[in-house]
Design goal:
By secondary structure, this protein is an alpha+beta fold. 22% of the residues lie in helices and 35% in strands. It has a domain of 44 residues.
């Protein structure tokens, strides 16, 4: 695996929620710097160094509700 993709959403209480599309990796962060650190840490904890992905892709999803 050369790449792992995380789906990033706004957390209801503020900050971000990050979920890997493959595997059961999940983390939360307060800001963008914290998000980068925690996603890297989660990947490091989940994979052995020999099979760890070389690229972490963050895909941001934002939901916006407007009046009709």
């Amino acid at each position: 695996m050369n790449e792992i993709i995380f789906l990033i959403e706004d957390a209801p209480e503020g900050g971000f929620i990050a979920r890997a599309l493959e595997g059961s990796i999940y983390t939360e962060a307060d800001d963008m710097d914290d998000l980068h650190h925690k996603v890297r840490d989660a990947v490091d904890c989940h994979f052995e160094p020999s099979i760890k992905p070389k690229i972490i892709c963050l895909h941001f999803v934002r939901e916006e509700i407007i009046a009709a």
